[in-house]
Design goal:
The complex is a heterodimer. Chain A is α/β, with parallel strands linked by helices. Chain A contains 23 helices and 33 strands. In chain A, helix 17 (511-519) crosses helix 19 (540-549). Chain B is an alpha/beta fold. Chain B is 47% helix and 12% strand. Chain B has 20 helices and 9 strands. In chain B, a hairpin with an 8-residue loop joins strand 7 and strand 8 (291-292). The relative contact order of chain B is 0.12. The chains are: A alpha/beta, B alpha/beta. At the A-B interface, helix 2 of A face helix 15, helix 16 and helix 17 of B.
C-alpha cells in the first residue's frame, strides 16, 4: 500500500478490508464493489440516494451516530463496520418495524421467492416480533388500471415507484398521499394510473405491493425459465427476459442493457407478449378453393405458390412484387430479399408499406444517425412531428435523463405532447403548417448555441402534407448547427428489413408504386410477409384496388389478418418470440432473438418458407447471398401546393397502445388501448355540436368512420386527430395519397334509440 | 432606536406591545427601518456580519446555530441567492413568532431586509404557517407599505439593492418547520426532509444558496444594528420565551438568556395556578426532555440545558402541574409525533405509530407489565436511526418519563389489570 493513490481515489476500510474507490463513491457502492452486502430497500442504483428506509445503517469510526451507507460519501481513511453490534441491532429494528404492518402473506404473494423484504427478513431480521397490536388495514388489492394492482398493506413506503415517475419517466404517475403512518401511494389524478412505463414500478418494488394484473397469481419465480431476448414492438430494441412456463410466456421483464434500454421497458413491452399464445393463431396453410380459404397441407400450398411463381416468370421478368418486413427477423428479411431478387428475379420489393408516395419517407433511410448512447449525450433535442412517448417510449427515458443533466428540449408538433412540460420551447401549429416552424428554429438561441443538437424527424412530419419541406428544413437546420438529423420512422424490424435488402432494387418500385402497379395489372402475383398492408397502407383505396388488380396474393401470417382474408394462399408463420435469430434496432444495432416457446401447429419461420419455395423452384439456398442495399438519402422537391386548405383537416397519428394484431391480443393492453377515438379541439367541437365522449362520424370525400370523440386541447383548432391501429376502424380509408391536407367533416351520431333533440 | 431610552427594558417586545406598530408611520416614528437603511446605504456586508457575530445571536428556531456563521456559509459569488423565512411555527407550546408577526410585522420585514442585503439575496420567501391568517393579512399590508415607502422592491432606500418579498402559506404540516422539508414544500413537493449535506446555505431553494432563518432571529437584527452588539449583549442577550401550561399568566416573555426556569415561571408567568404544585416542564417545546422540580434552578441557556440532558430549542416552556398524569402527558406528545411524522423514514413512521398504539392500550386498561420494556425497546430502535430530528425527538422524553415517572406507568398498568377483569 506504499503507492500513492491518485487524488481522485479514496481508500477506506469496510469490515477490516481496505477498499479503494473513486472519489464521490458512496459507502454502499464501495461495499458492493468489494462484495460486502449491505441490505437496502429504498436505494436504487438508477436514482439518487434517498436515505429513507434506514436499512443500510453502518457504523463509522469518529461519527457518533450510525450512518446510511447509501447517502454517505466514502472518504479517505474512513473506517466502516457493517456488522457491529449496533449495526446488527439497527438492522433488526428496521426489519421489525417494517414487518409490524406487513401482512406476511408471502405464500400467496407474487413476489414470494424474489422478494427483497423476504430475503432480508431471513438474513437480517430479528426472527420474532414483539408486535401485538392491530396491523394497518387497507382494502386489497386496489386496481390502479388495467395492468397495475396496489396492495397498500404490503407497501413498505420505500418511495421507489414514486421517484421512478419523478426522476426516470418524468410522468409523476404515482405520488405519496397522507402522511406518517397513514402514508400511502396513489395516483395524483384520477384512475387509471397515467403512465407508459408503469411496469417498471412493478419491477423495482422491493415487496409485493405493486403487482402486474396480467401476471398476478399465475406463477412462482422458481417455476419459470427466463429466456433472454429482444422486444420487437417499436424498434428501440429493448433487451427483455421472457419468463416461460409450460410452453407459454407468462411475463416480460426488462433485461439490463445500458447501451439500449438501461434497466427499463415501456408497458407495451412489459405486457405485450399475450398475442403469442392467442387462440386464433394460424396453424395450417390455407388455400382459396371455391372462393373460400380452406385448410391445406404445406406441400399443396407451396406447390401452388411455386407453380404460380414459375408461371409468372414465363410471362416475363418483374411480374411479381413483395411487400413487408416489419415483423420479420433479420434472417427472414435476408431470405426474403434473396429469394425475390435471385430466385424469383424481381426488383419490386419494399418493407415501407405504410409510406405514402408524396411524403418524405421514401427518400431517406430510416433510423438514427448515431448510437443511442451518443444521442443521450446531446445538449439540445428537437422533436419534429415525433410523438416520442407514443412511438419510441424508452428512447424518451434517455432524452429525459439528458434534460435532467441540463439539455434542452424543443418540440415542433401538431399536438400538445404529454412531455411538453419538460420542453424549453413548444412550437405548435396545424399539421399542414409545420414547415415554417422548423425554418424559424435556426434563429432559436438554444438550438443555435447547442453543441450536440439532435433533431428527430418523425412520421407525422415526414408523411404529412409538408413532408418534403420539413425534411429539407430539418436538414438545413442540422447543417447550420452542425447537428444530427435522425429519421424517427419505422417500427419493429423495419430497420432490419431496410438493412437486409427489402427495398426496391434497380428499376424496382417502392411500396406505393407496387400498389399502383398491382392495380394497373402489372403483377401476376403479390407476396406479403411480416406486414398487414390492408390496414397499414395509408390510402385505403390503394390497397383495395391493388388487391383486385393482382391475380394471386400470397401472405405469411400468424393471424387471419385483413390482408390474409383476401389472400389466395395463407402460410402460417411463427412470430418473433418463437424464433432464434436477430433483429436490427433503430440505431442499426444487431440484437439477439431467442426462441422462448414453440410455435403452434404447423407454423414455420418465414425464412424456412422461402427456402422451401426456393427448393421447389430448383434453387437450394444458403444465407450469405443477401444483397445489401444502403439507400442514399436524397431530398425530393416539395409537391406543388394543392389549392385552398380546408378549414378542418384530419390527421392520422400513432399511439403506443392500440388494438393491432399483436397488442390487440394482449390482456391489459386491450384495456389500455380503449376504444378508437378522435381528438377534437373544443372550439371545433362546439361548432360541430360534438360533445366529449359522444360518438361522431368523421366524413371525408372518400369514406367515413364512426369513433368516439374526445374534446381536448391536446389537438389544435382546425384539426381532428385520429389514431391508427384500431382493427375494424379503417381510418386509413379516410384519405387518399395526396400532398394536400385532407378535409373532414365531423358530425355527432345520435346513439341508437336515443331521442332526437 | 437608541434614542427611545424611555421605553421599557424589553427591546423586542416593546415593538409588539406598543399600539399601532402594524402601521409603517408609527413604526418609523419609533425609529423603525433606520437599521435597515444603514445596512443598505452605509454598512458593508462584512461590517453587518461582524456586528451580528459580536452580538452572539443564535437561531431561534430550535437548533440554536450561530447566525453570523450561517451567513458566512453563503457563497458570496453565487449569482442567485435566496432568503427563506421559516414562519411555520409549529412546535407545540411555541407562539413567539406569531406574537411578533401580529404585533409588529414591520420588525420582521426590516430584519428580512437586513439579512437579504447582507448576503446579497434579491428574493425572499416567507413560508408562513397557514393558520396565521391574521398574521398573513398584517404581513401583506406591511410589505405593501414598505414597498410604497421604497424599502421593498428595486433600489431600496435609494441604494443599488433590490429585495422582493413573497409570502407563501404552508399547508399544515409540522415537518415543514424543518428547513429542508420547508424548501421541498416551497418548491411544490410533499414536505419531507432532504439529505444534508448539501446544506441549504450551499444548495437550498431550487438548489441555490439559501439562508433559512426563523422569524424571531430576523426580528433581533434591527435591534442589534440599532443598539449595537455590545448593548444588545449586555441585555442578556434577550430571548423570547413562550410560557404555557399550568401557570397563572401564560404568554410570551422577554428575558435574558440564562434566566432560571424558576424565575420564568414564578416571576414572569405569575407562578403555578392556585393550589397546584409544579411537576415538570418542557423547556424547549415537546421535542425537549422535560425537567422536574429538582431542575427548577437550571439556567435557560443552551449549554446549561444540554448539561441537564435537554435543550433550549425554541424556548417554549410548557409547564405541567401535579394534577397531570405523566402517562397521559406522554401519550399526547406521542400522538402528536405519530400524526406529524412525514412518513419518509421507517423508524419514525412505524415507531411513532407503534408507541402510540402501546400507549393507547395502556390508557384503555390493557397494559402489560412487559410494555415498559417494550416501549424502551422501540425507543431504542428509533434512537440514532431516524432521518431527521422529528423522530429523534421521541425517544429521549419517553425514556426519561419511564425512568422518572415509572410508578405512574406501573399504577396505570396495575389498575388496568384489575379494572379489566
Amino acid at each position: 500500500m506504499a503507492a500513492e493513490a491518485p487524488r481522485t481515489a479514496v481508500t477506506l476500510m469496510i469490515d477490516g478490508r481496505g477498499i479503494t474507490v473513486p472519489k464521490g463513491t458512496t459507502v454502499y457502492q464501495a461495499a458492493r464493489s468489494a462484495g460486502v452486502d449491505i441490505p437496502i430497500f429504498c436505494y436504487h442504483d438508477r436514482m439518487p440516494p434517498l436515505g429513507a428506509c434506514r436499512m443500510c445503517l453502518v457504523e463509522v469510526q469518529k461519527m457518533s451516530k450510525l450512518q446510511t451507507a447509501c447517502t454517505l460519501e466514502a472518504s479517505e481513511g474512513m473506517v466502516v463496520s457493517t456488522t457491529s453490534p449496533a449495526v446488527r441491532a439497527a438492522q433488526e429494528s428496521m426489519l421489525e418495524l417494517l414487518l409490524i404492518n406487513h401482512p406476511l402473506d408471502c405464500p400467496i404473494c407474487d413476489k414470494g421467492g424474489e422478494c427483497p423484504l423476504q430475503d432480508q427478513a431471513f438474513r437480517y431480521g430479528p426472527g420474532r416480533s414483539r408486535f401485538i397490536e392491530a396491523k394497518r388495514d387497507h382494502a386489497k388489492p386496489l386496481s390502479l388500471g388495467p395492468v397495475l394492482a396496489l396492495d397498500r398493506e404490503r407497501c413498505i413506503l420505500c418511495w421507489r415507484c414514486v421517484r421512478f415517475g419523478e426522476i426516470i419517466a418524468g410522468d409523476d404517475a404515482l405520488k405519496g398521499f397522507e402522511r406518517g403512518f397513514a402514508s400511502e401511494v396513489g395516483t395524483p389524478r384520477a384512475l387509471p394510473v397515467e403512465s407508459k412505463f408503469i411496469g417498471n414500478t412493478i419491477a423495482i418494488c422491493p415487496v409485493g405491493a405493486l403487482t402486474s394484473r396480467t401476471y398476478r397469481f399465475r406463477a412462482r419465480p422458481w417455476d419459470i425459465d427466463p429466456v433472454a431476448s429482444t422486444c420487437t414492438y417499436c424498434g428501440v430494441g429493448c433487451s427483455v427476459w421472457l419468463d416461460v412456463r409450460g410452453g407459454e410466456i407468462l411475463r416480460t421483464r426488462a433485461r439490463e442493457e445500458p447501451e439500449v434500454n438501461d434497466a427499463w421497458l415501456c408497458d407495451l413491452g412489459f405486457f405485450g407478449h399475450g398475442y403469442v399464445a392467442a387462440g386464433d393463431r394460424l396453424t395450417t396453410p390455407l388455400v382459396r378453393r371455391e372462393g373460400r380459404l380452406q385448410e391445406a397441407s404445406w406441400d399443396e400450398a407451396l406447390d401452388l405458390v411455386a407453380e404460380r411463381l414459375r408461371a409468372s416468370a414465363e410471362r416475363g421478368p418483374g411480374r411479381v412484387a413483395f411487400l413487408g418486413g416489419r415483423r420479420l427477423s433479420n434472417e427472414d428479411a435476408s431470405a426474403a430479399a434473396g429469394f425475390f431478387r435471385d430466385v424469383v428475379g424481381t426488383p419490386h420489393l419494399d418493407h415501407r408499406v405504410d409510406a405514402p408516395p408524396d411524403g418524405a419517407s421514401l427518400g431517406v433511410s430510416w433510423g438514427l444517425r448515431s448510437s443511442l448512447e451518443d444521442l443521450g449525450r446531446g445538449d439540445v433535442f428537437v422533436l419534429v412531428g415525433c410523438d416520442i412517448t407514443e412511438e419510441y417510449p424508452v428512447l424518451w427515458l434517455r432524452i429525459k435523463a439528458a434534460i435532467d443533466r441540463g439539455a434542452s428540449l424543443v418540440i415542433v408538433h401538431a399536438k400538445r405532447l404529454e412531455i411538453r412540460r419538460h420542453a424549453r420551447r413548444e412550437l405548435l401549429d396545424r399539421h399542414d403548417r409545420l414547415a415554417p416552424l422548423v425554418a424559424a428554429l435556426a434563429a432559436d438561441e438554444t438550438v443555435a448555441s447547442g453543441e450536440r443538437v439532435h433533431v428527430l424527424l418523425g412520421r407525422l412530419a415526414m408523411d404529412g402534407p409538408d413532408g418534403p419541406n420539413l425534411l429539407r428544413s430539418a436538414d438545413s437546420l442540422v447543417r447550420r448547427v452542425n447537428g444530427t438529423l435522425h429519421i424517427a420512422r419505422g417500427r419493429g424490424n423495419d430497420f432490419g428489413a431496410q438493412r437486409f435488402g427489402l427495398l426496391p432494387g434497380e428499376g424496382g418500385m417502392a411500396a406505393p408504386g407496387i400498389l399502383q402497379g398491382a392495380a394497373a395489372g402489372a403483377f401476376d402475383l403479390l407476396y406479403v410477409a411480416g406486414s398487414d398492408p390492408a390496414t397499414a397502407v395509408t390510402d385505403g383505396a390503394a390497397w383495395e384496388s391493388a388487391r383486385s388488380g393482382v391475380g394471386f396474393l400470397v401472405v405469411h401470417e400468424a393471424f387471419l389478418s385483413e390482408t390474409a382474408q383476401a389472400a389466395d394462399v395463407v402460410l402460417p408463420a411463427l412470430v418473433l418470440p418463437e424464433k432464434d435469430g436477430t433483429v436490427t434496432n433503430l440505431e442499426g444495432r444487431t440484437l439477439a432473438l431467442r426462441a422462448a416457446v414453440k410455435g403452434p401447429g404447423q407454423a414455420r419461420a418465414d425464412r424456412e418458407i422461402f427456402d422451401l419455395l426456393a427448393a421447389r423452384m430448383g434453387v437450394v439456398r444458403g444465407h450469405d447471398t443477401a444483397t445489401r442495399i444502403e439507400p442514399v438519402a436524397r431530398i425530393e422537391p416539395a409537391a406543388a401546393g394543392a389549392g385552398a386548405s380546408p378549414s378542418l383537416i384530419v390527421v392520422v397519428a400513432d399511439r403506443l397502445f392500440t388494438q393491432g394484431s399483436m397488442a390487440g391480443r394482449c390482456r391489459g393492453l386491450i384495456e389500455l388501448a380503449g376504444t378508437a377515438h378522435c381528438l377534437i379541439h373544443p372550439a371545433d367541437a362546439a361548432r360541430a355540436g360534438v360533445t366529449d365522449l359522444g360518438l361522431v362520424e368523421m366524413v371525408t370525400e372518400h369514406a367515413s368512420v364512426v369513433v368516439q370523440a374526445r374534446v381536448s386541447d391536446v389537438t389544435l383548432p382546425g384539426q381532428v386527430l385520429v389514431h391508427r391501429g384500431y382493427d375494424g376502424v379503417p381510418v386509413h380509408a379516410l384519405a387518399r395519397w395526396s400532398p394536400a391536407p385532407a378535409g373532414v367533416e365531423v358530425r355527432p351520431v345520435a346513439p341508437p334509440g336515443g331521442e332526437t333533440p | 432606536m437608541a434614542t427611545e431610552a424611555a421605553m421599557p427594558e424589553s427591546v423586542l417586545l416593546r415593538w409588539v406591545r406598543t399600539e399601532g406598530m402594524a402601521e409603517i408611520e408609527q413604526y418609523r416614528r419609533a425609529g423603525g427601518y433606520d437599521a435597515a437603511r444603514r445596512v443598505a446605504t452605509e454598512l458593508t456586508p462584512d461590517q453587518v456580519i461582524e456586528m451580528v457575530a459580536a452580538s452572539g445571536l443564535r437561531g431561534k428556531g430550535g437548533a440554536g446555530f450561530p447566525t453570523a456563521q450561517k451567513w458566512k456559509f453563503i457563497p458570496k459569488a453565487a449569482p442567485v441567492k435566496y432568503v427563506v423565512v421559516n414562519g411555520d411555527e409549529g412546535e407545540p407550546g411555541t407562539f413567539k413568532d406569531r406574537t411578533l408577526i401580529e404585533g409588529c410585522p414591520h420588525l420582521l420585514v426590516e430584519g428580512i431586509l437586513i439579512a437579504a442585503v447582507t448576503i446579497g439575496a434579491r428574493k425572499v420567501y416567507i413560508y408562513l404557517r397557514r393558520e396565521f391568517y391574521r398574521g398573513r393579512l398584517l404581513l401583506d399590508a406591511a410589505i405593501a407599505q414598505a414597498r410604497a415607502a421604497g424599502f421593498v422592491g428595486e433600489r431600496i432606500f435609494g441604494s443599488d439593492h433590490a429585495v422582493e418579498i413573497v409570502v407563501h402559506p404552508g399547508a399544515g404540516a409540522y415537518i415543514a418547520g424543518e428547513e429542508t422539508a420547508l424548501l421541498e414544500s416551497l418548491e411544490g413537493r410533499r414536505a419531507m426532509p432532504r439529505q444534508r449535506p448539501p446544506f441549504p446555505a450551499v444548495a437550498g431553494l431550487y438548489q441555490q444558496p439559501t439562508l433559512v432563518q426563523n422569524v424571531e432571529t430576523l426580528c433581533h437584527l434591527p435591534v442589534i444594528i440599532g443598539l449595537g452588539p455590545e448593548r444588545y449583549k449586555e441585555l442578556g442577550p434577550p430571548v423570547l420565551f413562550s410560557v404555557s401550561g399550568a401557570v397563572v399568566r401564560p404568554g410570551v416573555y422577554e428575558a435574558p438568556l440564562g434566566v432560571t426556569l424558576r424565575s420564568l415561571i414564578f416571576d414572569h408567568a405569575g407562578g403555578m395556578r392556585p393550589g397546584r404544585r409544579f411537576k415538570a416542564a418542557f423547556p424547549g417545546g415537546v421535542s425537549s426532555v422535560f425537567l422536574t422540580e429538582a431542575d427548577l434552578d437550571v439556567k435557560m441557556d443552551p449549554d446549561s440545558l444540554r448539561q441537564a440532558g435537554t435543550m433550549l430549542g425554541s424556548a417554549a416552556v410548557i409547564v405541567v402541574d401535579d394534577s397531570a398524569d405523566m402517562v397521559e402527558v406522554m401519550a399526547r406528545a406521542v400522538e402528536f409525533y405519530r400524526d406529524e411524522s412525514c412518513g419518509k423514514c421507517t423508524p419514525c413512521r412505524e415507531g411513532t405509530a407503534w408507541i402510540a398504539q402501546v400507549f393507547e392500550r395502556i390508557l384503555h386498561g390493557r397494559g402489560r407489565s412487559e410494555d415498559l420494556a417494550l416501549l424502551e425497546g422501540i425507543a431504542g430502535g428509533m434512537t440514532g436511526t431516524c432521518f431527521c430530528p422529528l423522530g429523534e425527538s421521541v425517544p429521549p422524553g419517553l425514556v426519561a418519563s419511564l425512568r422518572l415517572f415509572r410508578d405512574e406507568y406501573e399504577r396505570r398498568i396495575a389498575a388496568g389489570a384489575t379494572d379489566g377483569r
